[in-house]
């Protein structure tokens, strides 16, 4: 039976869930949620997720939200034989650390800098841009210091799929990755090797770029 996914494809956390599902060959029932129309606040959705966030899944009556929790759940239930979440305690700890870095540092710094401009019409804050650059610098250092081409070692893991959803969003927002050569190199690798990348992430990135372009068109009138 397919898992119900409630999502909006332009969202980086939603695209992480799509990427993990693609990598593990998990069948999903796609339920689009229009956040601007307030569909996340309907009584039916609030019964599923009182926090009214996306992505949210329902798997045989079990509801779960928060993209990285969903990613781990997918692996734990459906990931037999996969190396996306290694069994070795130290290798898994590095994956968890990197997932937490994306959740607690990199993605929030992008969101704090960019989303007020797109959704609130705020001017760009150079201080917040500097903090985002610092976060990208941290990632660049991680990639330089770890043993392998991927985020935590020689194999792709959940950490790569989480980070690529964020980094692709940063990239399409027009923030250059050139000052971070290891990030740029890793980004190209994951785009080429993540299963189903174009469908799971590329389509959502296209929609996010349309949102950015529409905003720019309105502000330039």
Automatic annotation (TrEMBL):
One of its GO terms (molecular function) is glutathione transferase activity. Residues 1-82 form the GST N-terminal domain. One of its GO terms (biological process) is glutathione metabolic process. It comes from the Eukaryota. Signal peptide: none annotated. It holds the Pfam family GST_N_3. Residues 88-211 form the GST C-terminal domain. Homodimer. This is Glutathione transferase. It comes from Diatraea saccharalis.
């Amino acid at each position: 039976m397919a898992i119900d996914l409630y999502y909006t494809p332009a969202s980086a956390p939603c695209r992480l869930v799509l990427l993990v599902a693609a990598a593990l060959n998990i069948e999903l029932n796609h339920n689009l949620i229009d956040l601007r129309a307030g569909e996340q606040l309907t009584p039916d959705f609030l019964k599923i997720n009182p926090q009214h966030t996306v992505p949210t899944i329902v798997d045989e009556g079990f509801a779960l939200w928060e993209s990285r929790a969903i990613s781990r759940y997918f692996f734990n239930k459906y990931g037999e034989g996969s190396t996306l979440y290694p069994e070795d305690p130290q290798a898994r700890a590095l994956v968890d650390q990197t997932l937490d870095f994306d959740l607690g540092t990199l993605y929030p710094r992008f969101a704090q800098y960019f989303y007020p401009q797109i959704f609130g019409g705020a001017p760009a804050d150079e201080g917040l841009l500097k903090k985002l650059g610092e976060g990208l610098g941290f990632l660049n250092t991680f990639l330089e210091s770890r043993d392998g081409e991927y985020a935590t070692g020689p194999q792709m893991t959940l950490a790569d799929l989480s980070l690529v959803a964020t980094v692709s969003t940063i990239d399409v927002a027009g923030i250059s990755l050139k000052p971070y050569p290891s990030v740029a190199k890793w980004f190209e690798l994951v785009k080429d090797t993540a299963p189903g990348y174009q469908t799971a992430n590329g389509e959502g990135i296209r929609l996010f770029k349309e949102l950015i372009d529409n905003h720019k068109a309105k502000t330039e009138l």
